[in-house]
Every structure is written in C-alpha cells, then in structure tokens.
Write a structure and sequence with these properties.
homodimer; 121 residues; alpha+beta; Alpha-Beta Plaits; 5-stranded antiparallel sheet; 4 helices; 6 strands; globular
Chain lengths: 121, 121
Amino acid sequence: MGADVGDPRSDRTTLRRIAGVIALADGRAEEYLRLHREVWPEVLAALSRANITNYSIYRHDGVLFSYLEHRGDDYEADMASLAEDPATQRWWEVMTPMQRTLRATPDDPWWTELEEVFHLD
Amino acid sequence: MGADVGDPRSDRTTLRRIAGVIALADGRAEEYLRLHREVWPEVLAALSRANITNYSIYRHDGVLFSYLEHRGDDYEADMASLAEDPATQRWWEVMTPMQRTLRATPDDPWWTELEEVFHLD
C-alpha cells in the first residue's frame, strides 16, 4: 500500500480474536482466582500497551479458557514487547506453577490456541 | 444507532458476556464443523434479533467453547424469543445429537455456563 496521509499505521489496524486453553495445577485454583481478582496494575497496563482488549478468562473446573482481541497492525511485535515487560515477566513467574500446559508438543505455546469454528459479528 | 429520545429502551441497554462449554459427541466433529462453516441464514438472523453479537465458537479436541456478547435490556426475554424461533428449533434438533452436555445436574443448561475469573476492557 502507498503512504497514507494521516497515521501511517491506522489503515493497517486489524482485529484478531484469540482463544486459548490451559489447565489449573492441582490445588492452586483458589490462589489463581484470588490473584486474578486483583491483577497488578502494571500487568494490565502492559496488556493495554500491547493492544489487547476485551480480554476475559473463564474457568470450568480445572480448565481455564481465555478470549481476547488484539487491535493493531503487528500482533507478533506487540507480543514480543509484552514478553519483555518486567512486570509481565514477574507475573508469569507467579502464574507458571499454578498452570499446567496442555500443549501437544514442546514447541507449542504455553496456552494452547483454539481453532475458531464459528463466528457471527 | 445513538440514544434516541423516543426509545425508552436505549438507556437500559447493557452488555453481558457469556461463555459456555460443551463436548462434541463421538465421531460427530467433522459434521459439526462443516455445518458451522455455513450456519443457516435464518439461524444467524434469529441470533442477531436476540441481540447476540461477537459470537464465536472454538474447539479444543472434543470440547467446544463459546463466547458471545448480549447487548440489550432483557437477556431472558431475548433468549425466550430465540428458543421459540422455528429455524433455531430445527437447528438445535440437528445439533443436539452432535453434542454431549457437561451439565452437573439435570437442571443445568445444555451448554454449561463458565465462571468469569478475569476481565480487562
């Protein structure tokens, strides 16, 4: 695309919906839920800076399901920035032992990304 | 679109996010996915009339996860109207044998509603 008059990024902004699943580690549900009622403000700010919006996490017994929307022009770059954020790194250190990944291979991400089978706007 | 002076409902419109889980019946995944790539237009129209928006269904192996938003002033009334829609009733008749409910008691709904444990706008 050619150069745009206003914000050069605005015309490349896209919406991406991402859903994932992970298990709760045995005996850690209560602590996980408590921490998620008051997520550290720095962590929330980093998510917003990474253009993540409408982010919900749901629980069904020992399984967590996440749904979020990314509105930006470079999802991979935003995720890389998030992974370098110090508060986010500390948060993930606290979260890691509370979760049990369901990935099929060692190369899969920590949260398993789900296949969208239907969408209605 | 914007709040209309004459519309008494507009100021009571609220957003409700609903997530649910259900299992796929053994051997029915392929058919379920195929039908969801081309959901009947009458079914989509009925969902929209019931003020359901941003509705996605995701799959993880044999489990389906749904996320949807209801924007209206009477969720229960909209769900009751939806349940009376003939096309929706026919669709549900087709879907029912493809799904296996995970409800804990006979009084629970067909899709098990999930507990929200985190949300960031």
